[in-house]
Design brief:
mainly alpha; Four Helix Bundle (Hemerythrin (Met), subunit A)
Length: 196
């Protein structure tokens, strides 16, 4: 097994530590969760770079790399429902994960017909905004580890204003998720209509 694939496998285990850090109430747990997610994002870039640069691409990597990404992102979203319920609602997480499962199913169907469902511009924007939203919520969560040590007026201001802004951001991400998913389903409708 090459180095790129080993990094991908290691990323699969990040949620095992990430979720307890986010939800477990340990000292500076939110900060640890933020660091772990950033590390997971960095290893996603690293294994892809190594695979391309040194010819380490493999069927295993092509299959497991997106799986590792989805596991980490899903862990963060599900964790937010418990850790930051004022920002991320359960229905938002269900919508985002359901869309991803639907599009992954479409990709599997495309593979059976020897076609490829390529990521389009809106899909890439959805992914970028989703990652930005997750990092923003994790950064706010990490801030909460240090909030008791800050001046009270500043902590009160952040606590009053940041969660509503992040909630609006996640509502926008859900809208983008639906638009992106709808475009995929329309663009590749022949794939599933031919089996109806």
């Amino acid at each position: 097994m090459n180095v790129a694939n080993k990094i991908t496998i290691a990323r699969l285990f990040i949620p095992v530590v990430f979720l307890p850090a986010l939800l477990g109430g340990m000292p500076y747990g939110h900060t640890l969760a933020f660091v772990l997610f950033v590390a997971g994002t960095a290893t996603d870039w690293l294994d892809g770079y190594l695979a391309r640069r040194y010819g380490m691409t493999s069927d295993f990597g092509r299959l497991m790399d997106p799986v590792a990404d989805k596991v980490l992102v899903s862990a963060a979203l599900v964790g937010f429902v418990v850790a930051q319920p004022a920002i991320v609602k359960a229905w938002m997480v269900v919508a985002i994960i359901a869309r991803d499962l639907l599009i992954n199913g479409l990709r599997l169907l495309a593979m059976q017909h020897h076609e490829v469902v390529a990521a389009d511009t809106i899909g890439k924007h959805k992914t970028a905004w989703q990652m930005a939203g997750i990092l923003a919520v994790l950064l706010y969560s990490a801030y909460q580890d240090f909030a008791p040590k800050l001046a009270q007026p500043a902590a009160d201001w952040v606590g009053a204003h940041v969660p509503p802004i992040l909630s609006i951001l996640f509502h926008a991400i859900v809208v983008l998720t639906f638009v992106s998913g709808g475009r995929y389903l329309w663009k590749y409708r022949k794939l599933y209509m031919r089996d109806v």
